[in-house]
Amino acid sequence: MVSQIGLTSPALSPLCCFPSRARRRRFSLLKRKSFAMASLSEDPVREWMLSGGKATQITKIRPVGGGCINLASRYDTDVGPFFVKTNRSIGPSMFEGEALGLNAMYETNTIKVPKPYKVGSFPTGGSYIIMEFIEFGLSRDQSKLGRKLGEMHKAGKSETGFGFDVENTIGSTPQINTWTADWIEFYGEHRLGYQLKLALDQYRDTTVYEKGQRLVKSMRPLFENIVIEPCLLHGDLWSGNISADKNGEPVILDPACYYGHNEAEFGMSWCAGFGGSFYNSYFEVMPKQPGFEKRRDLYKLYHYLNHYNLFGSGYRSSAMSIIDDYLRILKA
After folding, report:
1. What is the fold, at CATH topology level, of the domain defined by 21-132?
2. What does the pLDDT read at residue 66?
3. Does position 9 have pLDDT exceeding 80, yes or no?
4. Which family does it belong to (predicted)?
């Protein structure tokens, strides 16, 4: 579902699909052929690298591990490598949202993210994003990741409320980020409510929709006696979007950023592998608030619903179980 930057790594989830070796070979040959034939005006990626990127020559183009949505490539130049994602089917809005999220995280000067350089369109259709290439290492320190993530949440705050300046995507699902003053309203309408409506429209799943709406209307007691600040969230923090550079510094990538309750960042923890050292370090920076454990599954629900809408009925039972548990607890 996502692309990797740097060293190609094995799939970390059955939902992460990588191009086959044959497909990568065909793609590589095609890229070399088109690169040799294209003029600057026909290839805006090459044009930027030889102007804004300060390169004088591009020495090699090769595919790297990617996801189902975009093609990912490493461009080697005489000023160093660049990472490029392309999609020949869609306009630049998805990549613009990604770039704004990456830049927002980058500007907190906390956890390492690839710096975005350029987003644009191809003359023949489709779009691209050019960003910093980060060489991955093998060491992954969960304690350091927890601390750095907490520092990003602490530093990245919004005075506007909960939301983001643009709509973006979670996987390939639109993510609505309309600025909202109240977090419970935002999460209920633009996160759970939106996914519930998708399930109704796509599968005619009236049971999930109606029970989910009951939960949305009754979930406010789960947030009593806590302070909720709009923190900058990565938004899609699972194992495939987490790595480390050659020096062991944590790196996060492929965001679905918005400003929200910091606990919502752990909604993908069911496939992120966060352990005790991660949470201990995180809560040293962002102290745990009362009822954290009671809200944890509520934030997982958004992502289970999204996986249900993207990948089918295999995720329905997990979403339904969470909804039923909360309806029983809340007596709704």
Report:
1. Phosphorylase Kinase; domain 1 (3.30.200)
2. 59
3. no
4. Belongs to the fructosamine kinase family.
Three-state secondary-structure class, residue 289: coil
Q: How far apart are CA 146 and CA 281, in angstroms?
A: 5
How many CB atoms are located within 10 Å of the residue 272 CB?
20
Q: Please tell me the CATH code under which domain 142-330 is placed.
A: 3.90.1200.10
Provide the 10 A C-beta neighbour count for residue 141. 16
Establish whether domains 21-132 and 142-330 are of one fold.
no
- How many degrees, rounded to 5, is the angle at CA 305 between CA 100 and CA 271? 75
- Asked whether the CA dihedral 307, 308, 313, 319 is positive or negative, the reply is positive
Alpha carbon 86 to chain centroid, angstroms: 16
Question: What are the sequence ranges of the domains in the chain?
Answer: 21-132, 142-330
236 is catalytic: yes
Angle among Cα 126, 33, 78 to the nearest 5 degrees reads 85
Tell me what pLDDT residue 10 has: 32
**DSSP secondary structure string, 142-204?**
HHHHHHHHHHHHHH-B-SS-BB-SS-EEETTEEE----BS-HHHHIIIIIIIHHHHHHHHHH-
Phi then psi for 24, rounded to 5 degrees? Answer: -65, -40
- Helix ranges restricted to H, the chain: 21-37, 44-49, 93-106, 142-155, 183-186, 194-203, 206-218, 276-285, 292-311, 316-330
Spatial separation of the C-alpha atoms in residues 249 and 95, rounded to whole Å:
25
Q: What is the pTM of this model?
A: 0.87
Q: What is the mean pLDDT of the chain?
A: 89
DSSP 8-class letter at 330: H
The three-state secondary structure class of 14 is: coil
Q: What is the pLDDT of residue 67?
A: 62
- The fraction of the chain above a pLDDT of 70, given in percent, is 87
